[in-house]
Specification:
The protein is an alpha/beta fold and 884 residues long. The protein contains 29 helices and 30 strands. The structure holds pyridoxal-5'-phosphate. This is glycogen phosphorylase.
């Protein structure tokens, strides 16, 4: 029989055990080994059965066991210590509080001058722990790591997301290797969440207006991530009609309208949830809003709407909001960017839908692809993200560059290098991803506190201590982690084969799968085509030989989920699974279904080599290899994302790529797969199996050591969040303050005036006279430029000379701008004369040009308006190539 209602009866803990409840609800346990050990000791068998989930554990412990613990002095002492440790962690001063005293000097006016009072961080998914399955892959895990690192650093962040009642899907396989999806129903009462309530005890309700008089309402659940609250909106509330209830059913499910409603709830509803949270808890209001990928971009519109309701004009409100907005783009793959039909968006905004009081045309204009190659009938969330944010970034140096090219159309007239998209390379939350065994080795070396600080905050001097660890200790650690992985793989494989319909009696061979002394390679990630799950199968005979080599075999563990709508991805999984089913190799290569955080934590630590072979440059950053590195696993990867930036032959391998050459995709896969096999055969396996005088693979161990000392301090989420604070949040908070004050309307009006007057701005004439001898190193040119500014004044613009090396197409590379100075009054034709010296400071082909840009102290970059005036062809005789 099916129940018509379900609810959860929460356990009543004996008073002495009350702190367990608090410890279970703060997800800090997910990265704090001491707290996890405490929960395990409540009941080891139930802990395992709960899948490491304290809330579930406490719901299942028999009353007799609780009574026993309540009388156990030793347990109570540990409980008291853990509770005190959490209290100290949550309330004590941390990096941010120490940093608060200083005030950086970047030239911007800085009333207050200090760090933002709070930052709201929006993301469509958050991967915090397997016990809160609200993520699909890297984007979500990164968001979870961002919150945890912010907590460690004391950054006053508020996370904002949706609570999906089915999360993302669970994956299993059919007998012949086809992916099956399951959507377990999550009951928020069984998750580590509390409902945000009004002072009268009723649930806080966020409401959005839908067309046709409908409404979309949501409750707000709060997860506590150390010091950081994470607000999750849940539309499955009784007041909603059935359609509205389903808005937060699944992560990345449903059609276009479903996605739009999810994103409106996340962005618009999310801002409303933040306001409610601050009102009810007294938390300071965020001065900076950070949107993790474009999905949450409507948050900017809601804030504009708030200001417009307060009486500000749209344009002024927009400036004020832009000032405090940071947008991070995460993918150069078009399918990763949300694009909606213009009409669909138009339908959901306006007088009888959301954000009444803002002209729908103004909203549409923000997302329109108004550039060459764009589609004006499409509303692009990344484009809106860029237009609504004053600070934008990609997630590795290479991805920053790729994004500048990809979005160059939004800043016509500027070279890609000038497109105002910075980069902050991703990092990973070490306390989450470092195996307890690795942590213990570190603690033995430099003590627990310093290890903890090295992992959360960074600082390379602490990592240098790894250099002193004995070879034998490192090797023993590696073997222990590998052996644990082997056990885990056998357990999971057994479960998988049972799901595939095998009887236990057929599965004896699984006890022999993998070998704790064989070089272990890991490959796990989502399965979009650019990640090339099956590149390793390109030459199956060669792979078979590697796997079954008599002296130097390798073993491979593979995992990954394909998006439910991606049959191509499912076919790749099937190809791989069929290969792994072959009795000749099934003891050396396995596919584990249901890749998620719990599996990942074991997998990264237990592998010797982490493989990544995306189609360069489509991997924006990639973070699994960083997590592997923190456990002493070596990276073998295409030079894409973070690896392009930090690879050194001392601690890993670069798979040569054929990108940029004229080869077709098939040929490219052939070339790159062959390079991969070559590396494995000639470089990697010999090094792993070659013992030095001590009987240990000392050259391999040295690479492990360098991975830890050199990559360790860089790949940390602590390093990443500190960069976000210093390079993006602080400038955004200051810009926000200045623009919010009276300047907002002035700045917006100035922008309008400049835009309107720009057609009258022109470079009319350029001449250069050599001072001294012509064109030789060390000489100086005197530039004289006549410009027309139309309605604008010299203060509104900067006239620049740009000089540098020229390529055969006369394109100036690495141009350095030199500002020119106005001299005297306008001539008879109303033209102004600008002058300045230009030093010939390099030999070889050299060229220069001049240009006029808008200039204002509040512009984030001089490309911000996308306006530039350059010499016309006719004037070009002087502004061009000077010499070759
Ligand atoms: C880290 C992580 C990812 C992202 O890995 P990439 O290398 O960026 O593909 C995906 N899924 C899980 C479970 C992870 O832990």
């Amino acid at each position: 029989m099916k129940a018509i209602r379900r609810f959860t009866v929460r356990p009543v803990l004996p008073a002495a055990l009350a702190p367990l409840s608090e410890l279970s609800r703060n997800l800090r346990w997910s990265w704090h080994t001491g707290t996890r050990d405490l929960f395990r000791d409540v009941d080891p068998a139930l802990w395992d059965a709960s899948g490491d989930d304290p809330v579930r554990l406490l719901g299942s412990v028999p009353a007799a066991r609780l009574a026993e613990l309540a009388a156990d002095e030793d347990f109570l002492r540990r409980l008291g210590e853990s509770a005190e440790d959490l209290r100290e962690y949550v309330t004590g001063p941390r990096w941010y509080q120490e940093r608060q005293a200083e005030s950086p000097d970047d030239g911007l006016p800085a009333p207050g001058g200090e760090l933002p009072a709070a930052v709201a961080y929006f993301s469509p998914e958050f991967g915090v722990t397997a016990a809160l399955p609200q993520y699909s892959g890297g984007l979500g895990i990164l968001a979870g790591d961002h919150l945890k690192a912010a907590s460690d650093l004391g950054v006053p962040l508020i996370g904002v997301g949706l609570l999906y009642r089915h999360g993302y899907f669970r994956q299993s396989l059919t007998r012949d290797g086809w992916q099956q999806e399951h959507y377990p129903l999550l009951d928020p009462n069984e998750l580590p969440l509390t409902l945000l309530r009004e002072t009268d005890g009723s649930p806080a309700l966020v409401r959005l207006a839908l067309p046709g008089g409908r409404a979309l309402r949501a409750h707000v659940w709060q997860a506590q991530i150390g010091r950081v609250p994470l607000l999750m909106l849940d539309s499955d509330v009784e007041e909603n009609d059935p359609g509205a209830r389903e808005v937060t059913d699944r992560l990345y499910g449903g059609g276009s309208e479903h996605r739009l409603l999810q994103e409106m709830l996340l962005g618009i509803g999310g801002v409303r949830a933040v306001r409610a949270y601050c009102r009810l808890t007294g938390h300071p209001a965020p001065e900076v809003f950070h949107t993790n990928e474009g999905h949450a971009g409507f948050l900017g519109l809601e804030r504009v709407h708030e200001l417009v309701q307060g009486g500000l004009a749209f344009e002024s409100a927009l400036e004020s909001v832009r000032g405090g907005t940071v947008f991070t783009t995460h993918t150069p793959v078009p399918a990763g960017i949300d694009r909606f039909d213009r009409e669909l968006v138009a339908h959901h905004f306006g007088p009888d839908a959301e954000l009444p009081g803002i002209d729908v045309e103004l909203i549409l204009r923000l997302g329109m692809e108004t550039y060459a190659g764009g589609d004006a009938n499409v509303f692009n969330m990344a484009v809106m993200g860029l237009r609504l944010a004053r600070g934008a970034n990609g997630v590795s140096t290479l991805h920053g560059k790729v994004s500048q090219e990809m979005f160059q159309g939004l800043w016509p007239g500027f070279d890609p290098e000038e497109v105002p998209i910075a980069s902050v390379t991703n990092g990973v939350h070490a306390p989450t991803w470092v195996a307890p065994e690795v942590f213990r080795l570190g603690a033995r070396q430099i003590g627990e506190r310093r290890t903890d600080r090295a992992l959360s905050v960074g600082g390379s001097e602490r990592w240098d201590a790894v250099a002193d660890i004995q070879d034998s200790d490192i090797w023993q650690l590696r073997r222990e982690l590998r052996a644990q992985l082997v056990d885990e793989v056998r357990r999971r494989l057994h479960v998988s084969w049972r799901q595939r319909g095998a009887a236990t009696a057929e599965l004896g061979w699984i006890d022999e799968v993998l070998d704790p002394d064989v070089l272990t390679i890991g490959f796990a990630r989502r399965v979009p085509s650019y990640k090339r799950l099956t590149l390793m199968l390109r030459d199956q005979d060669r792979l078979l030989e590697l796997l079954t080599h008599s002296e130097r075999p390798v073993q491979i563990v593979v995992a990954g989920k394909a998006h439910p709508a991606d049959d191509g991805g499912k076919r790749l999984i099937q190809d791989l699974v069929r290969f792994t089913d072959d009795p000749r190799v099934r003891h050396r290569i396995v596919f584990l279904p249901d890749y998620g955080m719990a599996m990942a934590q074991k997998l990264y630590a237990g592998c010797d080599v982490w493989l990544n072979n995306p189609l360069r440059p489509l991997e924006a950053c990639g973070t699994s290899g960083m997590k592997a590195a923190l456990n002493g696993c070596l990276n073998l990867s295409v030079l894409d994302g973070w690896w392009d930036e930090w690879f050194e032959p001392d601690f890993g391998w670069a798979i040569p790529t054929a990108d940029g050459s004229a080869t077709d995709d098939h040929r490219r896969d052939d070339l790159e797969a062959a390079a991969l096999y070559d590396l494995l055969e000639r470089r990697i396996t010999p090094r792993f199996y070659e013992n030095g005088p001590e009987g240990l693979p000392d050259r391999w161990i040295e690479m492990v050591r360098r991975t830890l000392t050199r990559l360790g301090p860089k790949v940390l989420a602590g390093r990443m969040v500190r960069e976000y604070v210093e390079r993006l949040y602080v400038p955004a908070a200051r810009a926000h303050r200045v623009l919010e004050a009276d300047a907002a309307s002035g700045f917006a009006a100035w922008k309008n005036r400049v835009r309107a007057a720009w057609p009258g701005v022109a470079v009319d004439h350029v001449e250069a006279t050599a001072v001294g001898t012509t064109a030789e190193l060390g000489a100086t040119l005197a530039l004289r430029v006549r410009v027309r500014l139309g309605e604008l004044a010299p203060d509104d613009v900067e006239v620049q000379a740009l000089a540098g090396r020229v390529d055969p197409e006369d394109h100036i590379a690495d141009a350095t701008p030199v500002p020119l100075k106005p001299t005297g009054a306008p001539d008879g034709e109303g033209r102004l004369l600008y002058e300045g010296p230009l030093a010939l400071d390099r030999t070889g082909p050299f060229g220069y040009t001049v240009r006029i840009l808008p200039s204002h102290r509040l512009l984030a970059s001089n490309a911000e308006l996308g306006l530039v005036a350059v010499p016309s062809e006719a004037t070009g005789e002087a502004a061009g190539v000077l010499m070759r």
